[in-house]
Design the sequence.
């Protein structure tokens, strides 16, 4: 007789998604699909100048446009005490509509409300704004000089927003000074935009009870409710935030934007529902940019390649307002994860952020607060070190990996890594990609002058913010929550404070409940995004759904199980101590044949509960004891056309370790999507500004999102090292591929070009940059 | 001006401004909100519908007036009698969607693609869908879904449980 493995019940099953039939039939319910009687449309007048004084705003012509009902400006809002909006991490505030001056091109200047979408746009075009241009600060290095003070509204008369540092400054300097090898490189992670296919938008109205009904594209609806209560003075019970189906988010839909406030003000002022939907241009130019970190990376090592110290000094371009949605105590987010997967004895990291005449943001674009920047810096840095030492990049990584036996591992910059087996994950990747054969092929090609590159990224993320002792947004601790109700027939509903944007919560949460309670996942409904019904939570971003809300669901389900045990004991006519939960049912200890299912217990909870409390539901607020640390080993294989500079990604393999996998199909899908966004950042996506502060990438013809034609065919695999502190061992995965892959792509390109002496190219690694690098290398040779 | 079209076999006559785009005509005048708008430059393909049976069109690039007298197929018209269209079923089986926003346009583009190329290779599919952006899936599974619907996917790869 063989030992029986745990039967496959629900977790670990590639269950087809429950939300798909409605999306497949055009029955999704996105915010722009909503319509209400008497609904008006809002269009925003936006600044044509990056920095200018507003001499006058003339709305008279706009008011004559047929259908226009009202126009409001910054002065109107200021008079109502709504001129400024606090940013989520509480270090700055943002103008709702420009007051006195504009600070970036496309900044919101006036709000026009009209009967139709077209009339609102006509009205916005008819608003006459008289600007007097001011000198433009288009980069953080110019900003640093304080020659032009951008924010005289602030107490601190400087463009410098904050200095943040972590680690041992002197110890790092000493270790670097005494290192046999030191490499240094400035690495810029360019400004990007998450650009979900659905832009941001809302519909606001006040119902007959005077309650604000606010339908909005929000990844964090409860935080919106509290923020709106604090900003507007409306009592929180009079605010109902509903985040409907979201057409992607990727961090773009975390902050509160000026358009939302204008819609609410318009609804209040005019007494009718107001809809505001961004155009793509408005989305790319004004809401939620990401990255824009200039990182000076320095790594010290022994002659044989053991790392001794890491120092990263970052100059951050935060745009016109410091609108990053980082946790309060972490103005540079989780950048301290920059020691990556390596056992650095000492490290120091500092970030200095500056205002510029660019759009505000600094949001966590498919990333746990600056983890993508940190991961890119260290993974590029390790390749540069390997190159300078003449050591294979794989060998260098293996030599410096945190070993399996070192977990839980206290990093030099203060994190406690929960678990991992980095050697195994990388070995899996090497075997699956056929590294030995690729090296042989590369050697042959190099002999013929052909450019083939193999690039690695063996990253570690930190996600699942986070423990209440460290993490809050606007003072609200970053717990999350779940409420489960099991109905008499054994069907049920689970609600959480998270909010799916395509991650498939309606499926995976049902699987988690089903696994914990032995119920049918097809009859577990999942509801999120409605602040009247969902328990309070901090929302979905920073890969926190599974680590935090997912854990809350498990714990709530276990509470239900404890209650159900009492009823099971009654049904089984034994004492509670004699009942055990085994094989997804309650059975009498030692008598497996004498058992009742959760479905039977659920019915009894409403019909035959004896002296027990009726009903079967539970709520759990989960305060995570630690973050989780998903990791992976990625390999990119590229061929570069020497004549045109064109890079072709021939193969890409991602081996991810995200701990326990709830739904392997969903996890694989998340990885495919994240890799494509990493590919986009590596090769095409950039929000550029010229020296005069003009935004050059204002729509999808300039901001290049990869299509099916150029996206590589993704290969994936997994290792599973469960998180020791998560009740299911899960770590989260949505962002890993986006965090880990950019360095693999760029490392592969540089590896291909390394015979020419090329050491670094900043992203996006476009064909013209590669072509120039080849041309310059060839010119140097002559 | 008056526009008369047949959408998914049902006639709609509406009085609209001449500048009304077909995408907004469908969404706001016909209240068929399955057709989405994701950009303003005909780049993303969320708004693709099929006109007269075999022509995939970005409905944000066509005036409603230009569709006058034509037959339009939108995502709402794909399932019949509660049964999903083979492409819808394939997208479900292959996890070819996540947030669902690009899905209607992908499905309609794929319908026109398979009309013109009933046995497309992976490269044909990738080229055929290049006018439709997806931010979630990375395209692997969308390609597989179209292969499944075309019957060109090996049995081993067909369908999750």
Sequence:
């Amino acid at each position: 007789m063989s030992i029986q493995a745990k039967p496959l019940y629900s977790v670990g099953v590639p269950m087809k998604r429950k939300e798909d039939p409605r999306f497949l039939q055009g029955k999704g319910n996105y915010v722009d699909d909503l319509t209400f009687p008497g609904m008006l449309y809002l269009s925003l007048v936006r600044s044509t100048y990056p920095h200018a004084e507003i001499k006058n705003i003339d709305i008279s012509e706009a008011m004559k446009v047929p259908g226009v009902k009202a126009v409001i400006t910054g002065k109107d809002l200021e008079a109502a005490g709504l001129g400024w909006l606090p940013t989520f991490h509480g270090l700055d505030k943002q103008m709702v509509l420009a007051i006195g001056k504009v600070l970036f091109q496309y900044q919101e200047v006036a709000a026009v409300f009209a009967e139709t979408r077209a009339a609102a746009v006509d009205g916005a075009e008819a608003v006459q704004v008289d600007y007097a241009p001011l000198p433009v600060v288009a980069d953080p290095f110019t900003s640093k000089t304080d020659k032009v003070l951008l924010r005289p509204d602030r107490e601190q008369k400087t463009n410098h927003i904050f200095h943040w540092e972590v680690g041992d400054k002197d110890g790092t300097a000493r270790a670097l000074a005494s290192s046999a090898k030191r490499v240094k490189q400035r690495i810029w992670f360019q400004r990007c935009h998450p650009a979900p296919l659905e832009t941001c938008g809302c519909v606001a109205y006040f119902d007959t009870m005077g309650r604000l009904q606010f339908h909005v594209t929000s990844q964090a609806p409860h935080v919106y409710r509290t923020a709106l209560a604090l900003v507007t003075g409306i009592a929180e019970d009079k605010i109902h935030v509903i985040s409907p189906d979201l057409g992607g988010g990727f961090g773009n839909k975390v902050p509160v934007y000026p358009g939302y406030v204008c819609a609410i003000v318009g609804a209040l002022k005019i007494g009718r529902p107001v809809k505001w939907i961004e155009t793509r241009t408005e989305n790319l130019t004004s809401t939620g940019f990401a990255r824009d970190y200039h990182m000076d990376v320095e790594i010290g090592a022994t002659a044989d390649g053991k790392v001794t110290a890491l120092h990263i000094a970052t100059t951050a371009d935060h745009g016109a307002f410091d609108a990053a949605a980082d946790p309060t105590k972490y103005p540079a987010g989780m950048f301290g994860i920059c020691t990556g997967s390596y056992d650095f004895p000492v490290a120091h990291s500092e970030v200095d952020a500056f205002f510029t005449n660019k759009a505000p943001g600094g949001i966590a674009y498919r990333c746990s607060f600056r983890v993508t920047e940190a991961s890119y810096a260290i993974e590029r840095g390790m390749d540069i070190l390997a190159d300078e030492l003449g050591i294979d990049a794989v060998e260098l990584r293996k030599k410096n990996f945190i070993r399996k036996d070192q977990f839980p591992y206290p990093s030099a910059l203060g994190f406690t890594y929960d678990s991992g087996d980095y050697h195994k994950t990388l070995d899996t990747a090497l075997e699956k990609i056929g590294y030995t054969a690729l090296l042989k092929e590369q050697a042959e090609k190099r002999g013929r002058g052909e450019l083939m590159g193999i690039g690695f990224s063996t990253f570690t993320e930190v996600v699942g913010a986070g423990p209440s002792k460290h993490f809050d947004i606007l003072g609200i601790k970053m717990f999350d929550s779940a409420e489960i109700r099991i109905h008499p027939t054994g069907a049920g509903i689970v609600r959480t404070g998270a909010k799916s944007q395509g991650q498939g919560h309606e499926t995976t949460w049902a699987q988690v409940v089903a696994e914990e309670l032995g119920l049918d996942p097809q009859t577990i409904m999942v509801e999120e995004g409605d602040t009247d019904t969902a328990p309070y939570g901090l929302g979905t971003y920073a890969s926190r759904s599974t680590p935090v809300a997912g854990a809350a669901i498990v714990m709530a389900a276990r509470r239900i199980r404890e209650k159900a045990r009492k009823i099971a004991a009654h049904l089984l006519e034994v004492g509670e101590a004699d009942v055990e939960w085994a094989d997804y049912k309650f059975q009498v200890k030692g008598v497996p044949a004498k058992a009742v299912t959760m479905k039977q217990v659920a019915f009894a909870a409403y019909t035959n509960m004896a002296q027990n409390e009726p009903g079967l539901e539970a709520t759990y607020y989960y305060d995570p004891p630690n973050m989780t640390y998903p990791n992976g080993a990625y390999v990119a294989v590229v061929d570069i056309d020497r004549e045109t500079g064109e890079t072709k990604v021939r193969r890409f393999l991602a081996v991810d370790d995200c701990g326990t996998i709830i739904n392997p199909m969903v996890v694989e899908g998340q990885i495919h999507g994240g890799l494509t966004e990493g590919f986009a950042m590596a090769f095409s996506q950039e929000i550029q500004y010229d020296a005069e502060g003009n935004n050059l990438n204002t729509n999808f013809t300039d901001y290049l999102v990869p299509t099916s034609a150029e996206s590589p065919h993704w290969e994936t695999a997994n290792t599973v090292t469960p998180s020791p502190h998560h009740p299911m061992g899960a770590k989260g995965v949505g962002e890993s591929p986006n965090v880990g892959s950019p360095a693999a792509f760029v490392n592969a390109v540089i590896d291909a070009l390394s015979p020419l002496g090329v050491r670094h190219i900043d992203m996006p690694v476009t064909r013209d940059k590669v072509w120039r690098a080849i041309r310059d290398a060839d010119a140097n040779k002559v | 001006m008056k526009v008369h079209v047949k959408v998914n076999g049902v006639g709609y006559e509406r009085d609209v401004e001449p500048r009304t785009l077909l995408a907004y005509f469908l969404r706001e005048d016909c209240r068929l909100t399955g057709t989405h708008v994701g950009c303003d430059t005909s780049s993303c393909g969320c708004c693709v519908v099929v006109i007269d049976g075999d022509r995939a069109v970005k409905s944000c690039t066509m005036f409603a007036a230009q569709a006058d007298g034509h037959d339009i197929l939108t995502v709402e018209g794909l399932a019949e009698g509660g049964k999903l269209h083979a492409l819808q079923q394939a997208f479900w089986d292959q996890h070819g969607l996540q947030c669902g926003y690009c899905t209607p346009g992908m499905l309609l583009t794929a319908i026109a693609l398979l009309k013109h190329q009933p046995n497309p290779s992976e490269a044909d599919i990738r080229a055929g869908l290049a006018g439709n952006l997806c931010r979630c899936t990375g395209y692997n599974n969308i390609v597989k879904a179209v292969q499944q619907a075309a019957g060109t996917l090996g049995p081993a790869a067909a369908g999750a449980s």
In short: The first strand of chain A starts at residue 40 and ends at 46. The domain at 20-25+480-622 of chain A is CATH 3.30.365.10 (Aldehyde Oxidoreductase; domain 4). Chain A touches chain B through 60 residues (CB under 8 Å). Chain A has three domains: 20-25+480-622, 34-134+199-246+253-286, 290-465+626-781.
